[in-house]
Amino acid sequence: xxxSVIGGLIGLPPSxxxxxxxxxxxxxxxxxSGHVIDQSQTxxxxxxxxxxxxxxxxxxxxxxxxxxxxxxxxxxxxxxxxAQRVGDTWKIGRRDxxxxxxxxxxxxxxxxxxxxxxxxxxxxPDLAASQIIERAIKPAFKAGDxxxxxxxxxxxxxxxxxxxxxxxxxxxxxxxxxxxEGFQFNDLLVFGLIGVPIVxxxxxxxxGRKGGAxxxxxxxxxxxxxxxxxxxxxxxxxxxxxLFALAFGTGGRGGPGGWGGPPMGGGWGGGGGGGGxxxxxxxxxxxxxxxxxx
Length: 294
Fold this sequence. Notes:
The protein is of the alpha/beta class. 50% of the residues lie in helices and 10% in strands. Among the domains are: 36-166, Diaminopimelate Epimerase, Chain A, domain 1 (Roll); 208-242. α4 links the parallel β2 (65-71) and β3. The radius of gyration is 20 Å and the shape is globular.
């Protein structure tokens, strides 16, 4: 505690102050350098970057910050206590919303923890977090497919959070939005960033890269036309989705269970890179979530 206070007075970041105040036999909290921090060398660079882009795209579309941390071991500290300490230090989630979620994997301990900020406990209650671990993540981990398990778990967490009534990053007054009732541009953005790569992955395996891209554009254009009833917007969406799918296909997939995602600018690199992204400063982690092993 004394080191933390002194660190604050002299301007040290919270993680550095906490590291100074942490006993030597307890794993220190690493600096927050991205959405995916792999200190256990479990994921390949492609797998790590694919998951990084997925989480960055979700944050851009919905605002919620989700971070995956892989370490070798948290012993002698229990993974739940360690995850709580990481959450308290990083404070991921928007400052005015507090929508943060942390996944911690201790590979040598064969333990995993989903730590949920208080704001998201309604969307991801303890039972749901436990089921995601048991039904999605654990089977893949037991088969040695860590990237696949993490992607399955993240996809299910994203689906649950999307159902929560949280403010969008660019929320505007109702009178400044489109006059088409029920039409939400952010919903289409989420589909474009997350749905298009998934649809393209399925169709390209059947029709090839170019055929899959055109078919993905048709599916996207049809969906936009149903939502907007505007042929012009639907045609524009068809062209944009086809080009996006072609670019995605050229970039390649990010490993088992992953997807390449849109190219993101700035210093997004997880694991040890610096700069370009930081915590929203609002996550209040009160012990919600679940732990499991494999």
